[in-house]
Amino acid sequence: MQIGIVLMLANKIRKILLGLILLLLAVSAFNLIKLLNKEALPIETLKAMSKNVDIEIKNFEVTHETLGRKDWEIKAKSAQIKNKENTIILTDVNVILNADQDRRSTISADSGTINQETNDIQLEGNVKFKADADSFFDRFQKPDGPTQKTDNP
To answer: What's the rounded Cα separation, in Å, for the pair 13 and 79?
Structure first.
């Protein structure tokens, strides 16, 4: 009789453990699906355009990093990708260039075009360039040229 009770308890424990394992698998699957859906782009970010524009992206951002350090970033209010022409048309563009010692230069413009073959970017309309003049011009100073600043009279 005691063996029968022990076997019944063992079966109940197995059923409870099996139920817990199934519950754990269901919760894990739910969390995985939820995580995968978070990483997908929202519908309003990408949309099909007219026949000469393949995709339009709102809040466009591209970053280039080297060993975890951002070298440059391109941000735009929107980007229209034209694969047949190998171009990306940008609106309200900001380009951030990160130099040595965390010195930043920024270029902003109303619009821009990126050539996807050459990776050249052309900016147009209210183009503004901001940089620390000393650090910017130090790059172009000749090694045998003057190293001290001179005051203008």
So the answer is: 59
